[in-house]
Amino acid sequence: xxxxxxxxxxxxxxxxxxxxxxxxxxxxxxxxxxxxxxxxxxxxxxxxxxxxxxxxxxxxxxxxxxxxxxxxxxxxxxxxxxxxxxxxxxxxxxxxxxxxxxxxxxxxxxxxxxxxxxxxxxxxxxxxxxxxxxxxxxxxxxxxxxxxxxxxxxxxxxxxxxxxxxxxxxxxxxxxxxxxxxxxxxxxxxxxxxxxxxxxxxxxxxxxxxxxxxxxxxxxxxxxxxxxxxxxxxxxxxxxxxxxxxxxxxxxxxxxxxxxxxxxxxxxxxxxxxxxxxxxxxxxxxxx
Length: 288
Known about the structure:
The chain has about 290 residues and is α/β, with parallel strands linked by helices. The protein has 8 helices and 9 strands. It has helices at about 20-35, 55-65, 100, 120-130, 150-155, 210-215, 225-240, 260; strands at about 10, 40-45, 70-75, 80-85, 90-95, 135-140, 160, 180, 195-200. The strands form 3 sheets. Strands 3-4-5-6-9 form a 5-stranded mixed β-sheet, with helices on both faces. Strand 3 and strand 4 form a beta hairpin. The longest helix is centred in the C-terminal third of the chain and has 19 residues, at about 225-240. It is globular.
């Protein structure tokens, strides 16, 4: 009989939401493969993720880096300890947004889709900026908020003001009242690092397939809540699209935020994927 090589089997599952993590699923599949193909089989476990829950664990496992911890808040502002990651070279920080505004963390109380915000995500980001990373990978998914990323930016020093110059209410409920944006207090490194958002949807910001309509109900939003959140996101898009960076005394654009980083070449509401998953990214990012 010809010599046969032991089979090489790659198991690369995503998590089974609410049942088992990607790493747990990979380990279970590997056990089954060993039982079926024998102890000589070479089995490689590669936990996968789509940018939602489990992405942090998958990346850290691939990089063989341990999780790190910092103080943050949940989507309702309650203190918690959040996990995050940093690549071995110290240059890339990983944030799983659900660590700062995750839906599972607020299931102990009635859902508050209008109040929930992404401030805790910004707290984690600020910690990474202080650590000196050059790039932040924001993994979106499993959030309880629909605030267009205003909470995240607020934690980094941005102020969202109403027509009278007062801060708007946190969460999605305040989006419709935003009239101006004050970036004078923005974290000094926020515009210097590279931001990337991991997301696997292509919904537009607003409308029937927008963030509020598609993902709001799973966060507890009723029909009237969805209308309010959708209108608020549309208002945020208008304000950000018209935003101009501050001007320094020498007449050159200010360095707090450059226009391309904070506004879109087209109206965000019309750009697929611009803020589909509930808007956790900076200035209307994403977040399922």
